[in-house]
Amino acid sequence: MPETDPRLLLLIPAYNEEARIGPVLLAYSRYFKEHYRGPFLLVVVLNGCRDGTIHVVRQAAATCGGIGWLDFPAPIGKGGALIEGLKLAPGTDLIGYVDADGATPPSAFHDLVKQMPGNDCVIGSRWMPESKLGEEQPWKRRLASRIFHAIVEGFFWMGIQDTQCGAKVMRREAVQAIHNDLRTADLAFDINLLYCLKRAGFRVREVPTEWTDQIGSKITLGRSSLTMFLSIVRLRLVYSPFYRMLAPLRPIEQWLYVKLGAPPSLPPRAAGKTEPIPRVEGG
Ligand SMILES: Nc1nc2c(ncn2[C@@H]2O[C@H](COP(=O)(O)OP(=O)(O)O)[C@@H](O)[C@H]2O)c(=O)[nH]1
Ligand SMILES: [Mg+2]
Which CATH superfamily includes the segment(s) 8-263? Predict the structure, then answer.
């Protein structure tokens, strides 16, 4: 059969996922071998794992092929891991990510990819009328998520219902154009990404997706909410006329991240400077 689909790279950020990631890697690898008519590579981005996630990933790679990994010993956060993973964009056509727990089934991620023609980024949404939710998030998470959404909308006016769904896919060119502006290492990374894409004029399309909440979440609600709030305030200021004037406050900002036990935001990178591409192991 001729290869007609674009090259696709799927990133899976993973933090202490030994109990959840194995079957997910096998399911994705099998599904895409069977249903995707183009080169497909899955890269797990581990950071600061204190369990045996790396062994589970190695095992899956040996069993299936088409699975590689990047392993960062430092706790660089989900955003930090994705910022590293997205440096692989030059070697592919489409690049996306999903969570390690299988909340997004492979067919649902494939549906996002199928909607890429004519768009620069397609994001899955759990908050549209046609979204299919197997198991919903606990009510406290849903409430926090709606409050967070209202604040994000008030700050950034993006008109996106669900910025936080873990399933997204983008065109390589769009990722490369904004990569230098990605500096949020915690879970507010997605806002940073979407805001920069929209600001640069890229077409971001939100579509209903299929999602099943999984037990074993790595997120502590109180602390994550505070960190995400700090990050979106920071992001709003970065893209305001005042940011230069606030330079003396930057050490306080970093101190707050440390106090919250969260990965600090990344320092600014020079425009036009290309970053070295990380070397994928396995694959
Ligand atoms: N690399 C990396 N991944 C993380 C970190 N924190 C969470 N993740 C990943 O982010 C994804 C979503 O986390 P999860 O616990 O499922 O969140 P929830 O379903 O929203 O409660 C999973 O793939 C996690 O392994 C982190 O600090 N580093
Ligand atoms: Mg999850």
Answer: Spore Coat Polysaccharide Biosynthesis Protein SpsA; Chain A (3.90.550.10)
